Amino acid sequence: MQTAEIKKLVEIRNDIRDLLPSFDEKVLNERLAILANLKKYFISQDIQEASKEIWCLEKIIAIQKMYVFAFNQLKLEKYYEAWCCFENIEIALSQLFRHLDEKDDFFPLVSFIKQHSFRYQSLFPYKTFISPEFTVKSRTCSVCNKNSSIRHPCEHKNGEIYDGEMCYQIWSGIEYVLLALVNSPVQKFCVTFLTDSETEEKIDQYNYSILEYLMSCLQSPFHSWDVHWTKIRHPHSNYSHLDTDDDCPCESGESYRNCCLQKSGVLRPHCQFNLSVPPPESIAAVRYPKSTSKKKVEVSGPTKFHTSIAKISEYLVQTAKGDFVKIQL
Predict the structure, then answer these.
(1) What are the residues whose beta carbons fall under 8 Å from the beta carbon of 91, sequence distance 6 or more?
(2) What would you measure as the largest C-alpha separation in the chain, in angstroms?
(3) Pick from 51, 236, 217: which is nearest to 143 by CA?
(4) Closest Cα partner for 109 from 59, 38, 46, 168?
(5) What is the DSSP code (8-state) at residue 47?
(6) Are 180 and 129 in contact (CB under 8 A)?
(7) pLDDT of residue 200
(8) Is the C or the N end of the chain the one with fewer CB within 10 Å?
(9) How many Å apart are CA 157 and CA 169, to the nearest integer?
């Protein structure tokens, strides 16, 4: 026989299912407040399955909020902020999918977010990252607050839900051993930027033109889109700043004179978007990236690297083994 609280949980779940995807922050926060009160009751009665159900609902709403925020950051051309948010979404989805059945009503929504977050990430120009190697003096369980090690683990399992909260480790006493430049980091927050050699100010040296064009086409974070890569010839007028003896911009290794200059255009990668909702009529069907001479910059010093590494401490991160960790720097 269902208690009044269980019936209330079913009602609020159905209500949230009908609301999502929703942009109404006030309405979502009201539902979260109801869930928080229900969770307190279920924890007091040691009803673990209901507490876990509420954790899943809270996580789904949090993921959608992050996805909408990342979309809005892209619209504002705050690309690194959006990148960090997509990384946070990826980690949160990894937590959720351990506990969400494929037949669940919310599975299509979070699957949409996972698919499109990956597509957005694939368009970012970031190729080099800082990967820190460090030693950890203390590993504490978030549930029981006991020190945990391989030889002396506590009874709680990383990633499982206890009293409506996910278990993770808290790492402290961090001492860096080395910093490495890598192409495929475990944590994607640590993007490398450059600094101006004279002013020492940060320079974002990356070309975001593909993302900029896509965002001019998209009107909602929940409009579906896909991307296909091919090659087409770009107009020679885009490369008028080059001398004929310069390297060909198609990156063949030959001179411009002996390569694409003899053709109808420069053979370059081309990004084709397939949109579920047509873009505004003012958006050009084809846009070529701007080609300008590069600024003289040099690799940033340790200050910038430390700033990007500090991002790791702002969120739960996932280790190469799949465990979830909160790092205290």
Answers:
(1) 315, 316, 317, 318, 324
(2) 83
(3) 51
(4) 59
(5) -
(6) no
(7) 76
(8) N
(9) 10
Tell me the one-letter amino acid at 26. K
Sequence-distant (6+) residues with CB within 8 A of 281 are: none
Q: 161-162 and 202-203 as β-strands: parallel, antiparallel, unpaired?
A: unpaired
pLDDT band at 297 (very low <50, low <70, confident <90, very high): very low
How many CB atoms neighbour CB 291 within 10 A? 16
The residue whose two tokens read 């809005």 is 72
Predicted model pTM: 0.87
Task: State the Cα–Cα distance between residues 206 and 9, nearest whole angstrom.
Answer: 47
Separation in Å, CA 88 to CA 82, 159, 238, 314: 10, 16, 37, 10
Which residues contact residue 229 at a Cβ distance below 8 angstroms, ignoring those fewer than 6 apart? 269, 270, 271, 272
Mean pLDDT (the chain, rounded)? 88
Closest among 248, 276, 241, 251 to 262, alpha carbons compared: 248
Task: Note the Cα 37 to chain centre separation in Å.
Answer: 30
**In angstroms, what CA-CA distances link 194 with 75, 99, 304?**
23, 41, 8
* Helix (H) or strand (E) run with residue 130 in it: strand 129-141
Contacts of residue 72, defined as CB under 8 A and 6 or more positions apart, other chains included, come to 221
Neighbours of 143 (CB within 10 A): 19
In the sheet with 316-318, reading across from the earlier edge strand, the strands are 129-141, 169-182, 324-327, 316-318
Residue listed under structure tokens 């949090």: 62
Find out whether the peptide bond into 302 is cis, omega within 30 degrees of 0.
no
Q: Are 177 and 131 in contact (CB under 8 A)?
A: no
